[in-house]
Design brief:
- This protein is an alpha/beta fold and 244 residues long.
- It has two domains: 130 residues, Response regulator (Rossmann fold, 3-Layer(aba) Sandwich); 102 residues, Beta Barrel (OB fold (Dihydrolipoamide Acetyltransferase, E2P)).
- Helix content is 36%, strand content 31%.
- The strands form four sheets. It has a five-stranded parallel β-sheet with strand order 2-1-3-4-5. The chain has a five-stranded antiparallel β-sheet with strand order 10-9-8-12-11.
- The longest helix has 23 residues.
- The two termini are 35 Å apart.
- It comes from Pedobacter changchengzhani.
Length: 244
Amino acid sequence: MIRCLAVDDEAYASDVVAAFIKKTPFLELIGTTTSPFEALNLVQAGAVDLVFLDIQMPELTGIQFLKICGDKCKVILTTAYSEFALAGFDLDVVDYLLKPISYERFYKAASKAKQILQPVLSLQNEKPVQAIVQQENDFMFIKGDTKNKFLKVNYNDILYIEGLKNYVSVYTETQRLITYQPLRELEVELPKPPFYRVHKSYIVSLEKIKMIDGNTLFINDQSIPVGETYKEEFFKMIREGKKG
């Protein structure tokens, strides 16, 4: 099965593509998103084989997305504007779907992707599990403070993450990085373990906790509360971890 992601800043457009993916036997829908940054993190994590990608998105265009993700996955472009086709093919896309998309045209593009991806996926399936795990990335990209600026953050460098309304602060040993993204969206992109939500405003790396005293965690000089909602699950995990 080819793992697919539909990316479009208009939810109804990605829903159409998602419905087509579901009815195609050799495709598997991983998800849909209106956020190119969420999509980029999924691609960088190796969770996607094929992206159906809108070109005109306000935060990050499809062409910019292609340049960042490189050869991490294959891409089929979707857009209402045919003049963007040439730029896409210069970046080695599989095909170009002009909106409104018919299922017949969708299936033709998907079949083309299958011919390209099937030999690659067959080889991957023959590799030991350990080898596949080693290929997973240990970093993510977060949006910077200006348009089209992205910051690479290694998971191992993150101490904890603090959410404040519609932006979050990512704290490392040496710096504080601010990205305009709700904490709940960032949470799903982080590997668990080592990252756990312990409060409505905090995600911590278990590896960086120096001490736990009652309902308070200590990471370096920072004290972080464990919220009532998260307390039972968190301490159950800690106890089971100690027994292991």
